[in-house]
Specification:
- This is Pirin family protein.
- This protein folds into 2 domains: about 140 residues, Jelly Rolls (Sandwich); about 100 residues, Sandwich (Jelly Rolls).
- About 0% of the residues lie in helices and about 50% in strands.
- It is mainly β.
- The radius of gyration is 17 Å and the shape is globular.
- The strands form 4 sheets. A 7-stranded antiparallel beta sheet has the order 2-3-4-11-6-9-12, with no helix packed on it. The chain has a 6-stranded antiparallel beta sheet with strand order 1-19-16-21-14-13. The protein has a 4-stranded antiparallel beta sheet with strand order 5-10-7-8, with no helix packed on it.
- A hairpin with a 4-residue loop joins β7 and β8.
- It has 1 helix and 21 strands.
- The chain starts with a strand and ends in a 7-residue tail after the last strand.
């Protein structure tokens, strides 16, 4: 079964933050946004598409017991925490943070000239009280062109590891190209079109900033009508097939 969410169906947020402003597309309940129909998908609890104005800073704030994956869509993303650790991400790069027992961190637009857009995903960890850690991966555009490139996975060589049974793939699909992905019975996929397209998914037309939840049994087949960037998140689901 495929459930499509068009761009206007995804919650839009905006506001003032330190040194600037942000706009956001929040896919699941987050902050002051509450929607009982959209509280997560398997262990995926947050999927935010945020853009920070030049120089803007999401100020230091605390978290506990979450696995965070950050994907930079455009601009220069900088992560910082209370230990002084963090890192820079550029377009296509990915970072995994185990918050575990607790972390105070911030997200920063490291450019004073251009906006910065990033995707942040939160997952429930598979065990509590983990020590905090941060790691990241540089991904070249050629690596993800016309394929589903593994960013985060406990099974794929070279991917970032995570304390949950999830996998995250990125793809830059050139016009007319296709990718395929098979879902086992117990797993689902969340797909987000970051830019470009439209992308066709088994008869559904997905423009930029649209998403789709796919529950088994389904084989995912994506074809881009124009160049497109997308993410695919593979998660375990309850045996009922419902998120």
């Amino acid at each position: 079964m495929i459930r499509v969410r068009m761009p206007h169906e995804i919650y839009q947020s905006r506001g003032q933050i330190e040194n600037g402003t942000f706009t956001g597309k929040w896919h699941f309940s987050f902050g002051s946004y509450r929607d009982p129909k959209h509280v997560g998908f398997g262990p995926l609890r947050v999927f935010n598409d945020d853009t920070l104005s030049p120089g803007a800073v999401w100020p230091l704030h605390p978290h506990r017991e979450i696995e965070v994956v950050t994907y930079c869509v455009e601009g220069i993303f900088r992560h910082a925490d209370q230990r002084g650790e963090g890192g820079i991400l550029r377009a296509g790069w990915v970072q995994h943070t185990t918050v575990g027992t607790g972390m105070i961190h911030s997200e920063i637009n490291a450019s004073w000239d251009n906006p910065m857009r990033f995707i942040q995903m939160w997952f429930k960890p598979d065990q509590p009280m983990l020590p905090p850690s941060v790691e990241q991966k540089h991904v070249a555009k050629a690596d993800r062109t016309n394929r589903l490139f593994p960013l985060v996975s406990n099974r794929k060589p070279g991917a970032l590891r995570i304390h949950q049974d999830v996998e995250i793939f990125s793809s830059f699909l050139q016009k007319g190209e296709s990718v395929h992905y098979d879902l086992p019975d117990s797993r689902g996929a969340y797909i987000y079109i970051l830019d470009g397209g439209p992308v066709t998914l088994d008869g559904h037309v997905l423009p930029a900033n649209s998403a789709a939840e796919i529950v088994p049994p389904e084989a995912v087949s994506l074809k881009s009508e124009n160049d497109a960037e997308l993410l695919l998140v593979d998660v375990p689901l309850p045996q009922s097939g419902k998120a």
